[in-house]
Design goal:
alpha+beta, 434 Repressor (Amino-terminal Domain), Arc Repressor Mutant, subunit A, 19 helices, transcription, Lambda_DNA-bd_dom_sf
């Protein structure tokens, strides 16, 4: 400190004005003349070591705080490195001049830049609400019970320990062996007097499953495949057997309305039905053995590809967990139907609305499993696996429903996953080229993106009539 001359006139003046002191009063506190203090404030005299110590003692300020240029320069360089203004300065000389001659102005610039970055981060946090043009933000409208349920599922690990324990006990009582469907039908008739009957589509035009309390019959639509008939039967059974357990889980979630609790009861029932068809420990052991190959797991447990993938996202039991998978389901219009898994879906970094995701490419290759390495703007990398899912059987003249399920995992944590074989042998995920994605076009600042569908909210559009970029929406 003694070898370096520190000129901190604006800082001394700001300190004096903040404390409401005149130059005469402050000079008296420091034991110097008012004229000498005036020279210091005009940066015509440096601060001496003795004066720095006096300032620290009298006003309880650390001496390092008076080194304006040393503290401002790194922050200013970082701010002016922003692509929005990086071309405005030719060299670091102007930044150094700004820090030395007008530190107050420099700090104001830094505050503005910090506010700008914080606003951009808040927009990213709301990416799922602002991703679609022409749609009102959910924040501006009513918050529906379905929205609350989705938020809960997206922001917690998709694992219900009590449900898993209750399902295991239920499975031991059933003793299904090779025929879970037969065991469930027998249990429903024995314990509740419920019979199961499959009806033609004409008799169930708007239902896939309907329980008639008067006749004690559970009707299933013939539109359902054998796998889906088993799932609907298991769902009915677990909602009856696990009524108290599901109520305990609902109480812990603290939902705000009865409608939200009803919807969440169905989601937990769906979870329990998957757990019954794919018991936790046997499923995890099989998953490890086949390296999380979803096709093999679906065949072994006689479930659909989507059901096996969804079960992978629930393997979060402490001490007996699989890779932290998360799920995203979309339709051909880009509507995100479900998001869950891992420790909450990584919504901010991963998003789900980027057209470069393999989930959108999967629609052009139905029935084929696609696996790609993708990278978000903050450098996070994910192994993303996508495949189409077909809905109920459609009759002639009806348009079948088709969605895509994307299952993902952080690239650094996908060791032992078969889909990582697409990576060259011996290569580390961080060393490979990845497909660059964003949260949504409105919030993505990647330049020259051929898939860009909307201009970013955080950048001004380019209006250069002499040049045109690769993207449909050029921006600065």
């Amino acid at each position: 400190m003694a070898e370096q001359k520190i000129f901190a006139g604006p800082r001394i003046r700001r300190l004096r004005l903040t404390k409401g002191l005149s130059q005469t009063a402050m000079a008296a506190d420091l034991g110097i003349s008012p004229s000498y203090l005036n020279l210091i404030e005009r940066n015509q005299r440096p601060l001496t070591v003795q004066l720095l110590l006096k300032l620290s003692t009298v006003y309880r300020i650390e001496a390092e705080e008076f080194d304006e240029e040393g503290g401002l320069l790194p922050a200013l360089r970082q701010a002016f490195a922003d692509p929005l203004i990086s071309a405005e300065l030719a060299s670091d000389t102007e930044i150094a001049d700004l820090a030395a001659s007008a530190p107050n102005v420099a700090r104001a610039v830094l505050k503005l830049h910090q506010a700008y970055r914080e606003q951009a981060e808040r927009l990213s946090d709301l990416g799922d609400l602002l991703a679609r043009e022409g749609r009102a933000s959910l924040l501006a409208g009513a918050r529906l019970p379905a929205d609350e349920v989705r938020e809960v599922l997206e922001r917690r690990a998709h694992h219900f320990a009590r449900v898993e324990a209750a399902v295991e006990a239920f499975g031991q009582d059933l003793e299904p062996r090779e025929d879970l469907f037969g065991a469930l039908k027998a249990w429903l008739r024995r314990e509740h007097g419920i019979a199961i009957r499959v009806l033609p589509a004409s008799a169930m035009p708007v239902w896939r499953r309907r329980y008639d309390r008067h006749s004690q019959r559970l009707f299933l639509s013939e539109r359902l495949s054998a796998i889906d008939q088993l799932h609907e039967t298991a769902l009915e059974a677990v909602l009856l057997r696990l009524r108290d357990t599901i109520s305990e889980e609902l109480a812990d979630l603290s939902l705000s309305s009865e409608e939200a609790r009803r919807l969440m009861r169905f989601e937990i029932g769906r979870y329990a039905a998957h757990a019954l068809a794919m018991p936790y420990t046997p499923f995890l052991r099989a998953a490890v053995a086949v390296r999380y190959d979803i096709d093999v797991l679906a065949a072994r447990f006689r479930v659909s590809w989507g059901q096996a993938a969804e079960r992978l996202a629930t393997l979060a039991r402490p001490g007996e967990a699989g890779p932290p998978f998360f799920l995203l389901e979309i339709d051909h219009a880009g509507n995100r139907l479900r998001r869950l898994g891992a420790s909450g879906f990584p919504l901010i970094r991963f998003g789900g609305a980027c057209p470069r995701l393999p989930s959108y490419a999967a629609f052009m290759r139905p029935g084929e499993t696609l696996a790609e390495l993708v990278e978000t703007p903050d450098g996070a990398r994910f192994l993303a696996v996508a495949r189409t899912l077909d809905g109920l059987v459609a009759g002639f003249g009806e348009r079948p429903r088709r969605t895509v399920l994307l299952i993902g995992c952080e690239a650094e944590r996908c060791e032992g996953v078969a889909y990582a074989d697409r990576l060259p042998a011996g290569a580390k995920p961080g060393e490979l080229a990845a497909i660059e994605i964003g949260t949504a076009c409105r919030l993505c600042e990647r330049a020259a993106c051929l898939s860009r569908a909307e201009p970013p909210l955080t950048r001004p559009l380019g209006l250069d009539g002499m040049a045109r970029g690769l993207s449909a929406f050029d921006f600065q």
